[in-house]
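Fold Annotation — chain and its backbone
Encoding — discrete vocabulary of local shapes
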Amino acid sequence: MSYSINKNKRALILAMIALSFIVISFSYFYYKGINDSKDPRVIQARELYEKYNEYTSLNDFENIFALLDSVEYIYKGIDHYGESFEVGVLYNNRAAAYLTMAIYENIPEQFSLISKDSLLKLAQNSVFESIAIYENWIKIYKDKSTVQIEKLLQKNFLSGLENEYSEKQKNKFIQSRVKEIETAQYETERRLSVAYTNLGIIHRHFEQYENAINNYQKAIELWDQNLTAENNLNILLGKPLKKRNLIQKLFPPKRKEN
């Protein structure tokens, strides 16, 4: 009886080990397949960007700007990404960093000689760049079908990759980028909404209230769930602030970082 129990235990353990091996193997090849499909030219940029949230949580502005500069340098070195939505994100992040320092006066020593108005101006210049990139990107890609996106990518996406990778690998890169662009087709209007919100905040602190109201309204038109823009507008119009309802708290609208 004891032998039978031990035999069953050993069989169970062996089965669990085999199952674990299968799961691990499947995961390895699955995620390897995903990673292999990513454009190798921007992997470093994406890995660098993963530090962004950590730096912002620490108000580590020196590293924030260094990171954004490094990531932008990589993207702008590749034709396809020079005016991509990713670069728009970088400029809006710069605007947010300058704006944070200007509003909360949380200025590190190395930025201490920059006045509030100068920080607001730097934020404004960055957000203008972001808006221009987003709006141009939307004109090119909005409502494009998968086939139309693929045709657009054929123009310059593979520039520099022609001789290094097989046709199969290059096709994987294209298909992966198509999926990223299809996601960005609905995400980028929300990103643009955030940029207009930042611009509205900048105008409010310059006491340009009419411009601020116009930008908040534009932000809400682009994304009707932009509560930050709505409440900033309500402040200027003397209306009560809105709170997120329970559903919104439990299921906030999805937004991507890049």
